[in-house]
Structure to design on (210 residues):
């Protein structure tokens, strides 16, 4: 390490740990992501500041427009920045030459520290509002269809309750035909109930004399 990065966060690293962490950090344009710290640039010098990862509260991209884009004079250009919020409200803004370097840094940062937000508070509010509008539009478009589907399901369930399907007979379970009640007033006679004529005389009216 040619020079020691300047500590920005209240929490710092020991010189030996700092040198090792910066040497192994992943570099993205003028900044870098280490295992214990985020290394940030000044306008002229790369990775000359550091903020410990435990101090970072939010990191996100901001894109500004060059002066020519606002006035209509000169060449239009967008200027990408990496913004780091730490220690309960302090902020460091780092300029990049290429926007894709900011995107790659944030993509890598999402893997190593997924718990740290990668949108500004305003960006989070816009995303929440967009999600709310999309949900409202989705419900508005599908509500009539969902209601019709629900009504059809309710009708089908009511028909099944009124006319349950026949249960097949099985071991230990008689068929529904076997469970039909006998007609009142009739009794099937056995051999002891046969009349003199036999045959159909075996059926007698219950309650009548033989």
């Amino acid at each position: 390490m040619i020079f020691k990065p300047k500590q920005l966060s209240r929490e710092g690293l020991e010189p030996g740990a700092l040198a090792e962490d910066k040497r192994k950090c992943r570099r993205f344009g003028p900044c870098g992501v280490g295992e214990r710290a985020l290394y940030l640039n000044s306008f002229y010098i790369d990775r000359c500041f550091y903020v410990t990862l435990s101090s970072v509260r939010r990191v996100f991209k901001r894109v500004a427009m060059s002066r020519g884009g606002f006035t209509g004079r000169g060449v239009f250009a967008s200027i990408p920045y990496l913004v780091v919020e730490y220690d309960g409200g302090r902020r460091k803004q780092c300029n990049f030459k290429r926007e894709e370097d900011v995107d790659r840094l944030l993509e890598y940062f999402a893997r190593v520290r997924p718990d740290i937000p990668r949108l500004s508070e305003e960006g989070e509010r816009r995303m929440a509002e967009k999600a709310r509008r999309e949900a409202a539009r989705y419900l508005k478009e599908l509500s009539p269809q969902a209601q019709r589907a629900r009504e059809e399901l309710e009708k089908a369930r009511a028909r099944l309750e009124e006319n349950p399907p026949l249960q097949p007979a099985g071991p230990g379970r008689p068929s529904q035909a076997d469970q039909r009640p006998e007609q009142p007033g009739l009794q099937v006679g056995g051999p002891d109930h046969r009349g003199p004529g036999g045959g159909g005389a075996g059926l007698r009216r219950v309650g009548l004399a033989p």
